[in-house]
Amino acid sequence: MNSEKLTASQVERIQKALETVPFAKLLGIELEEVAPGTATLGFDIRDDLKQNNGVVHGGAIASLVDTATAFAIISLLPPDEKATTADLTISYLRPLRNGRAQSTARVIRAGRRLIVVSAELVDDAGNLIATALTTYIKI
Question: Residue 103's beta-bridge partner residues?
Fold first, then answer.
């Protein structure tokens, strides 16, 4: 994990956050890289993540994107602040069938209440599978 410019306590918070999300474990989501305002997470494609046409279910893709955007935000929030998804708009560009999916998220703007994040999801050949724009609200 690239933790450049993050403090030890930030890295610990991020690692603990992933360990305590049962749904992320269910999907097999793994943290690959994190730096201030950006995070990359991925999962290996399994048959139980596919819908009946043999492609990865859109909900699994959206969950990976949503998790990546959350971790990009966690890297910027003070320990006493939390945020949750207020809006997620995703565009599916091509089917995802095999290999590994990877989502990279970047904070575009962190305001006093709202945080806007963009994300891309690629397959292991580097093909762009989906793009997303999401808004989080501090709670």
Answer: 41, 121
For residues 9, 11, 12, 17, the Cα torsion angle rounded to the nearest 10 degrees is 120
Q: Give the residue from 132, 27, 33, 49 showing the smallest Cα distance to 97.
A: 49
Q: Which domain holds residue 59?
A: 8-138
Cα(74)–Cα(53) distance, integer angstroms: 35
Residue 1 covered by a domain: no
Question: Which tokens in the block code for residue 100?
Answer: 């590994």
Round to whole Å and give the CA distance between 42 and 71. 12
Token pair 């269910």 is found at 26
Is 2 within the bounds of a domain? no
User: Mean pLDDT, consecutive 10-residue segments, the chain of 139 residues?
Assistant: 72 86 94 94 97 96 97 91 96 97 98 97 97 97
In eight-state DSSP terms, residue 48 is G
Q: Measuring CA to CA, which residue among 22, 27, 18, 69 is closest to residue 50?
A: 27
